[in-house]
Amino acid sequence: MTAPTNWHQRALDLKPESKIFINGKYVDAASGKTFEDIAPHDDRVIAHVASADAEDIDRAVKSGKKVFDDGSWREMNPRDKKAIMLRWSALMLEKKEELALLEAVDTGKPIGDTLSVDVPNTARVISWYGEAIDKRYDEVAPAPRNALAMITREPLGVIGAVVPWNYPMMIASWKIGPALAMGNSIVVKPAENSSLSTLKVAELAIEAGLPAGVFNVVPGLGAEAGQALARHMDVAKIAFTGSPAVGRKILQYAAESNMKQVALELGGKSAQVVLNDCTDLEAAASAIGWGIYYNAGQTCSAGSRIIVEKGIKEELFAHLRKFLESFAVGNQFDPATQMAGLVSKSQRDRVNSYLDLIGHDGEKIIFGGEKTRGADLLIAPTLIDNVKATSRLAQEEIFGPVLLSIDARDADEAIAIANGTDYSLAASIWTGNVAKAHTLARRLRAGTVWVNTFDMVDVITPIGGFGLSGSGRDKSLHALDTYSALKTTWIALN
Fold it and tell me: How far apart are the first and last CA of the chain?
């Protein structure tokens, strides 16, 4: 019998590549500067990562523009492009353990999650968009008989992508997949505390046959590398996932440079509306628990608010307690662990600052709620009752394993509360009445509405929101249009 993998030891033995990836090669930052990549679980320096600045961004963009202009990827036979994308996806699965370990060490995620979710889903997105390459058709317009009017989708050029630390590989793939499928080049700026997996993915792309320069990765600080990418005059579009504060800066940088296209996904304060006619509160509690405590609540669409009709609240809370009895919280290197610590001390301190607000306006802790200090980044799954819909707890994105319960008199008030934040990314409704489900789903202001489930996501459907949750959409065939421009070619036939 094979001995179980000692993931902690493998983490200690890691010697990851930490240079910038430009034009198919690992290179040092032009300045020679590096920054420390810290492992959340033990505060250890994993690597000294090359810190890109404007000069490095310029090198990466020039590399992408050169290969875009020469057409080696843009004009490649679609079948050949598809084959490269499929080989790339297969290589990710072959290297699943290495990629999963890099992701886990960088972010503090449970190794079981990175093995079963992050790497397979990243590979699936790349293969899915690869498969789409030779199955997409353009259009012929109904022009007069003496003319032929064709509408084609043309690649934009060099795409800049700035991705966050909570799902580094997966969210990067949501931008890389459709951008490359449409024939663009791309420059990815990962979050400074989670660059390692994306650097490895870029290496595998070259191994799969992607032309050098099509996909570049430039780790660095946001104020330096991120700003330089968003301001670059040869970047045709910037795709950003992160905070509203940085999203506003991205819009500013785009406006002050070349008016490049901008797509933003900026987070959420997703509501789960649980009505008295919900027929399976145990299933609801399980979905609610997974929806907020998975990845320690560090998910943009996390269901951080439950809006409950009072008649079923106590029973729902009882099922949530029961859910936590079998929900494994602890060591990230134990494959059975389902929730580990937060990504960093600064994020832990942010969550602590919201826990400090409990009780100021009548809030009551049902379970959890304990703050942690020092090296301990594990905040216990928390449920807070009697939260006011207009409070900071209910209005601001906490990004931790903190679930807030808000009372509602009836369905109308529940929908009003659900829509009563500046965020509009996702929401769910729990009801046994199918007509009510359809009616209320239409009234919810959210990019995704689930009925009697939560967080059912796949590359086949788009993700994105309204309001403070941003603009634009990742995933699905619709994303292909966002990385292209419509072009009309009108031919006179007489």
Answer: 77
Angle at 81 between CA 77 and CA 84, to 5 degrees: 140
Rg, Å, the chain Cα set: 23
Give the DSSP H/E element, type plus range, for residue 128.
helix 119-132
Full domain range(s) for residue 76: 7-266+470-488
What distance in Å separates the CA atoms of residue 181 and residue 480, rounded to the nearest whole number?
7
For 390-435, the DSSP string reads TSHHHHS---SSEEEEEEESSHHHHHHHHT-SSEESEEEEE-S-HH
Using 50 as the pLDDT threshold, list the residues of the chain that sit under it.
Answer: 1
Task: Quickly tell me which residue has 């940085």 as its tokens.
Answer: 246
- My answer on whether 292 and 342 are in the same domain is yes
Q: How many domains does the chain have?
A: 2
Return the closest-CA partner of residue 181 out of 131, 217, 138, 119. Answer: 131
Residue 211 phi, psi dihedral angles, 5° rounding: -60, 140
Per-residue pLDDT, 59: 98
Domain shared by 191 and 276, yes or no: no
Residue 464 lies inside a defined structural domain of this protein: no
Q: Domain with 209 in it: what CATH number?
A: 3.40.605.10
Helix (H) or strand (E) holding 305: strand 305-309
- Confidence (pLDDT) at 3: 64
Residues 315 and 374 in one domain: yes
pTM of the model: 0.96
Residues that are catalytic:
265, 300
Q: Using alpha carbons, list the distances in angstroms from residue 463 to 347, 447, 457.
A: 24, 7, 8
Residue 2's Cβ-count burial label (10 Å; 0-12, 13-18, 19+) is exposed
In a domain, 494, yes or no: no
Local structure of residue 461 (DSSP, 8 states):
S
- 373 neighbors 342 (Cβ within 8 angstroms): no
* Residue 425 CB contacts under 8 Å (≥ 6 apart), including other chains: 265, 267, 268, 269, 270, 300, 301, 446, 447, 448, 464, 465, 469
In a domain, 63, yes or no: yes
Residue 381 within a domain? yes
Say whether both 100 and 173 belong to one domain: yes
Tell me how far apart the alpha carbons of residues 257 and 228 are, in angstroms, rounded to a whole number: 10
The pair of three-digit structure tokens given for residue 265, joined into one six-digit string: 């996904």
Instruction: Read off the pLDDT of residues 200-217 as tens digits, 9 standing for 90 and up.
Output: 999 999 999 999 999 999
